[in-house]
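Convert to structure. Protein one:
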Amino acid sequence: MEEFDFEADGRTFTCSVETARTPHSPSWWWFSVTGDRHRYAPFQFEGDDTEMTVRSRVLSYYRDLLERRGITATTR
């Protein structure tokens, strides 16, 4: 899959697959979010991933991350 962006919770999420530099290592989904200086790689790439399944997983992961940090998704 190619890189894609989507809007949610007042932010822009940019998602892309990156392959490891070592042979036979899995590829990972990376994403960045406007207003957050970090990049995240929470999931390995799966051959049946679609933009919608990745988007759902990324949103779930990020909202949970914000909740664990004590920050609401819409006010950060």
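Protein two, convert as well:
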Amino acid sequence: MTGTVSFDYRRIAEGYAKDRPFLHGQVMERLTKKIQKRYKNGLDVGCGAGLSTKALRQVCDRVTGADISAEMVRAASALYTEPEYSFVQAGAEEIMAPPDTYDIVTAAGVINWIDEKRFLPQMASIMKEGGILLIYDFWISGRMEGKPAFTEWYEKEYLKEFPKPPRKERVWTKEDTEAFQFELLCQETYSMDCEMSLEQFVRFMLLQSNVIAQVEEKGKDIEAVRQYFEESAWPYFASGIKEKLIFDGYSWYLRLQN
């Protein structure tokens, strides 16, 4: 993989296992509305601690999660021990073909960090003809239902304190995918909401790449960062009830051509 932030830290892997919202399941529901089919053998690229693999299992009999991070693979393997799951450590561009090729591949939150000119040919080599490649991602938008002041805090305070690390954010085109045997069926954007308490919000924000870049990569004190979120975000959660945060996302549906 390419990119400027590593996620191969035990703190991050343990946090992904416990504190990431399971919005991946809603993405799979969107898939089933687009393509009404059940799959036999699936691959989840960049599986992290396994939430996206769990989501793929909703539509697939047998699933393999792959991640470049040993810590993520360790966390996922400990959580999902059923025989329908398996996990391997491998970069997105280097995953080997199984005895039975994959009829669906998902890649959640991955393409910002990979070399697509290596990734797509590799996927073509390990997928069945006509197989589906679902590329998707979602992220906290900086919007909170009914509280526009939260957006001002997010954009003017949080992003100033924790700027977004560099990543590739180009939207793939039909020409990009056809060059590697994939037909681009559809691209869609959408929003999803997730209710969080202040405590859940703080734990979630500590897992953002913006924060990882400052803590794990640059040595900023994690407890000081935790205190920053607890104090600066508190006014937006002061009622004591869970607040509804808005996440933006996208899905790209590709099919391996014959």
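The radius of gyration is 18 Å. The mean pLDDT is 95.
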